[in-house]
Amino acid sequence: MSATTVSPSGTTGEPGPLARLRHLMDSPTATYYLLMSVTTLLVSIGLVMVLSASMIVSIHDNGGSPYTVFITQAIFAVLGIVAIAIAIRIPVSGWRRLGGTALIVTLLMQALVFTPLGTGTQGNRNWLDFKAFTVQPSEMGKLALVLFGAGVLAHKRHLMGSFKEALVPFVVPAAMAMLILVMWGHDLGTTMVIAAIVGGMLFAAGMPARWFTLAGVIGLVGVAGLTITSSNRLQRISIWLNPGQCVPANEELYFDTCRQPMHARYALADGGLTGIGLGASKEKWRWLSEPHNDFIFAIIGEELGLIGALAVLILFAVFAYCAYRLVMRSEDFFVRIASAGIMTWIAVQAMINIGAVIGLMPIIGVPLPFVSSGGSSLVTTMLAAGVLLSFARAEPGCKEQLAARPGGMRGSQAALARWRRGRARG
């Protein structure tokens, strides 16, 4: 029998939309289903936009086939689905145990980047080339660092007031080793994302706020050092601060460093409110570099307009909200810190990518999570979503209600009722 509400006049009726929404969000499976839905939508949008944005690049680079990049991305999406399916079934204790091993493996892989197996592009040496496919170890390193750090910080939760206990061994040597290896490969964007992950996890663990000021100063000095040692980065920042340099008379900049930020703005401007239509982008015709990768958000804005761009932003906000629910609702300190780390990772990386496209930040070069072309990024972020789904499944009442699904609606309602009775007794 459905719940009813009493109106001021004394009559009864069905609950209003807000009441129904609150009822749904109070369900133990709310985080699980919401997270599953938003991840599916982001990956689906990514596949559609990669197909649209990569066609011209595929034809130009692969002798006539417009589907090469898309097929590769679709294969990685399938691998990501397999990764999620496996991740959901791993208990929280299993993720806690995997952290140390995963970190050691990814650090060794990142070190291999500087051997003959390593390869680079546009000045960044951050990939391993196995001929049949390439792997970016730093993407896997983000998740490994989250799991290892969550395990360490959860173990030391009552010692976070001590500077030494807060930093060792999570920040020093683990995070520092990863950061040094990535910086050595000149990948500033990934370095910034990893640093943000570390900061977000320490904040969630309760590290005193005054220490973040010192860390911020050290981080700014490090970014400045990486910038002044690269003429390409200096030029990008110069253009960001003074876009007036991008004029046809300044031919060297106009057709080189200015090209990406200029054509990203052109794409967004052409899209207007509703876009020029899916597949109709002009900028992907070799005008905008990396239209299916770092600048895919510009193609979204061009083809789907402001409405499509805002829809993607809302989906990322919902993903962050799901992770935040796990941080606030879980009683397991490991789950709270790991969820905070994944939330920071996805949110900061999305902000850096989108900020560069719309001109709020200089061009740094990180993919848009779940959406941009790139196998390592897609599989790893989908695996991270699988970790969050595993955490959501471990919430009280969630596993029981999910298990009751084959029994139909009555089984689900009975499981929910049992969960509420147990919660009331507690």
UniProtKB/TrEMBL annotation:
Its EC number is 2.4.99.28. One of its GO terms (molecular function) is peptidoglycan glycosyltransferase activity. Pathway: Cell wall biogenesis; peptidoglycan biosynthesis. Pfam families: FTSW_RODA_SPOVE. One of its GO terms (cellular component) is cell division site. Keywords: Cell cycle, Cell division, Cell membrane, Cell shape, Cell wall biogenesis/degradation, Glycosyltransferase, Membrane, Peptidoglycan synthesis, Transferase, Transmembrane, Transmembrane helix. This is Probable peptidoglycan glycosyltransferase FtsW.
